[in-house]
Write a structure and sequence with these properties.
This protein has 3 helices and 8 strands; from the N terminus they run βαββββαβββα. Strands 1-4-3-2-6-7-8-5 form an 8-stranded mixed barrel. Helices cover about 20% and strands about 40% of the residues. It has about 160 residues and is an alpha+beta fold. Strand 7 and strand 8 form a beta hairpin.
Length: about 160
Amino acid sequence: MTAPLDATDLYHTGIVVPDIEIWKSRMTEVAGHRWTETLSARLPVRLADGDRTLDLRYTYSLDAPHIELVEEIPGTPWTATAHLATHHLGYFCDDLTTTSKRLSESGFALEACALIDGAPSVFAYHLAPSGVRIEIVDRARIPDLAAYLRAKASP
């Protein structure tokens, strides 16, 4: 049986931060990162304690290897830790439902996922008992990452 993920589909490392604008500036100062505009999406999300609609704010670095900064939402998986560290590894996948099921079978429990018409869609977070978190993203949502990042680049 093949692995649920393909290593070549790893496209970003996510970090949850208390203030996205401060951390965009800070990472530019220390490493020269350039960023997309700060993006936002109001999405219905399934969490362990039920479905909620959340206002997600995030940005991607334009240069590889890509970093995604996500602004924290207390009381959700998007809560910043006292010592900011990698929050998740983001992989593209071709079949979100099947990949999510295979990750669960591999010991990475479903932690959160976006919902469209009540069904998992767009992305899903899976968490291993060790704390390693994987985000899978439907490749059809961002079929050309370079073009997506150019279109979202900050002016």
